[in-house]
Write a sequence for this structure.
């Protein structure tokens, strides 16, 4: 300590002085120690609470680190799944486009076939109508011919009927005249025959 003289052997009276210095230093140290001990006793619960808080925070920090690691892993897995889904969507989109094109081509072919079929049907119908028209013309010619023949035969029949009627009238007139003559001349009927 500062009160102790390092020179030995000590001078007379210096021994008591050194002892007094040592006691003084001891008292100072003891006072500091007690003050430190009192301060330590006061801060003990706080330190314990701080240690508990630090341990709790460290445990929580460890949990958070683990959660972050799990989240990163899950994020990576989700990124892979998203990439797969995008690839699948692109593939499906491409397939859908191809399907739409195929459907369009098929629809065009079907329309073309339907149009061709319709044209064939119309052509066939036109041919049938032309054939029917030709047959109708031929039938009309035959009917006209028959009508002409019928008209001629009607005229002939009419003339024949008129002739027969005239002949009958004439016969009646002749009979009447003959009867009148007989009455007038009183000629027997047998002689006239």
């Amino acid at each position: 300590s500062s009160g102790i003289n390092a020179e030995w052997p000590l001078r007379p009276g210096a021994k008591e002085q050194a002892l007094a210095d040592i006691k003084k230093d001891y008292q100072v140290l003891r006072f500091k120690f007690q003050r430190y001990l009192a301060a330590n006793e006061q801060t003990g619960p706080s330190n314990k609470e701080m240690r508990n808080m630090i341990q709790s925070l460290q445990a929580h920090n460890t949990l958070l680190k683990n959660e972050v690691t799990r989240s990163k892993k899950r994020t990576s897995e989700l990124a892979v799944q998203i990439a797969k889904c995008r690839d699948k969507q692109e593939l499906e989109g491409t397939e859908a486009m191809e399907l739409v094109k195929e459907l369009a081509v098929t629809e065009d072919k079907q329309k073309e076939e339907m149009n061709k079929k319709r044209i064939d049907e119309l052509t066939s119908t036109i041919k049938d109508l032309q054939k029917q028209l030709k047959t109708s013309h031929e039938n009309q010619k035959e009917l006209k011919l028959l009508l002409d023949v019928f008209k001629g035969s009607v005229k002939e029949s009419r003339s024949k009927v008129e002739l027969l009627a005239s002949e009958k009238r004439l016969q009646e007139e002749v009979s009447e005249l003959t009867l009148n003559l007989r009455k007038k001349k009183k000629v027997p009927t047998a002689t006239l025959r």
Q: What stands out?
A: The chain has two helices and no strands.
